[in-house]
Amino acid sequence: MSSDRTIGVFSGDSPGPLVISTGGMHGNEPAGVLAIQRVLGLLQSASPPLSFKGKFVGLRGNVKALDLKQRYLRQDLNRLWSVQYVKELAELGKGNIQDEDEELLGLTSAIHDLIAERDWPHVYLLDLHTTSAAGDIFSVVSNRPDNVGLGLSLHAPVVKGLLYRLEGTILHYMDEVGGITAVSFESGQNEDPASVDRAEGALINCLHYAGCLTDTGFGAEYDAVLRSYSRNLPALVEVVGYHKVNPEDEFRMVPGFRNFQQVKKDEVLAYDRNGPITPGQNCRILMPRYQAQGEDGFFLVRETSGF
Ligand SMILES: [Zn+2]
Q: Is the pTM above the cut of 0.85?
């Protein structure tokens, strides 16, 4: 099984869960695709052959944008996901839709075909991303406990409350479909080669958490990378603020902010045509926008304990 959509497949020698990982939902984020390819290589070349339960499949997100090395063609693929919208696209038919609509229908079809293959004991989805800012790594989850549990198992800070500020992400869709444990993982800056290593570690941790890998030592060196990288970062944070950007805003982020950097309430984070933008509270900044496209200016988060 190989196509532009499918990066690769690894099937176990005994029954188990289905684990799907998507890379390159944003075409300027190839690290996820590379990480999936490397994990598939590790699984295939293990000697003696690995005991593996279930099936792992890697899928490309925005195939055309990945080819063009740009974030998206016409609109952000990770803002379009809803069961109703996918149904409308399917009714229009593949020949009558284009760009991100075509990508969304292709990707959801691939995911649903995999889920329909058999009666899986459980289905997991790990959606791999990178960010335009320098800095740290984190998981994004909905507030469902199984998603938070998978997020914490990746050994990077978990961000909850983000989905209330957004619409149409793959995580919204998976919650709507139900029965799928899903996490998005941000592995670092887009061009940083270490972002591939960290995405690799998250994916291996996900395969352990899902119960596919029975050899607990497999990939321990990748997990060590994650643990050491996350050592001084909060385990769980909650979103307390969001700055949305409109195209006419002339939004400019002040250079140099890192993910999870502490910011003061009067600190200037960005400028737009109305002047300086401050957080209004002492907190931490997440995903400051240093790319030209997209409507997310930055997020503000605070440490939280418990689910
Ligand atoms: Zn992304």
A: yes
